[in-house]
């Protein structure tokens, strides 16, 4: 039986993020997380994912984008999975909250160094330059025509509740042009925290919007 891909978004929790990938996968569930709800923590996010796949028969491949890396292993720990795939992830570690992750990994310094290497000024966060720089204009315009996705601070203050990574085969894919989590930064974090090498695809942080075919083909090859 073919596996079902469970597509978990990052901050903002929008299932729309996956809308260019889902048509390319025969079996996929894109999950909408209650990101704007101040009562919803990481456990609540896992509740929503588990409910979304409650009626799915067969193996699950949990795909977590960015902050979704905090949720995917919680789901795997509860209901099992054939595989976890992390896409440009915030890889968590025991005893750390999503809010602590940034300083713990040195993301800000790594991003500033990467900007200097590619000739961009060190500046405040710019969603167009940092996230959407390689997303087609039509898709970018569609994204910005929607109400901005809300993201509560609640899960950022909650310690990741697992003692360690679940015993589930795991792959990590990083965009070669991710400006937010630069490739060398990602390689270091993934190696230190999971003992894994990263697979590299073309694209930036929002790979599902900029390179849906390449990402879908990668996922299908894993299955």
Mind explaining what this structure looks like?
It is a single chain. The chain has one domain: Alpha/Beta hydrolase fold, catalytic domain (Rossmann fold, 3-Layer(aba) Sandwich), CATH 3.40.50.1820. The model has no long low-confidence stretch (mean pLDDT 95). It has a 6-stranded parallel beta sheet, with helices on both faces. With 223 residues, the protein is α/β, with parallel strands linked by helices. The chain has helices at residues 42-52, 72-79, 98-105, 107-117, 127-130, 137-145, 183-194, 207-210, 212-222; strands spanning 4-8, 28-30, 60-65, 83-87, 170-175, 199-201. The chain is globular and about 50 Å long. The protein starts with a strand and ends with a helix.
Name the descriptors.
alpha/beta, globular, single chain, 223 residues, six-stranded parallel sheet, 6 strands, Rossmann fold
Can you tell me the CATH architecture?
A: 3-Layer(aba) Sandwich
Round the Cα radius of gyration to an integer and report it.
16 Å
Spatial order of the strands forming the largest sheet: 2-1-3-4-5-6
First and last CA, distance: 11 Å
User: What is the structural class?
Assistant: alpha/beta
**Mean pLDDT score:** 95
Compose a concise summary of this entry.
The chain is an alpha/beta fold. The protein has helices spanning 42-52, 72-79, 98-105, 107-117, 127-130, 137-145, 183-194, 207-210, 212-222, and strands at 4-8, 28-30, 60-65, 83-87, 170-175, 199-201. Helix 1 crosses helix 2.
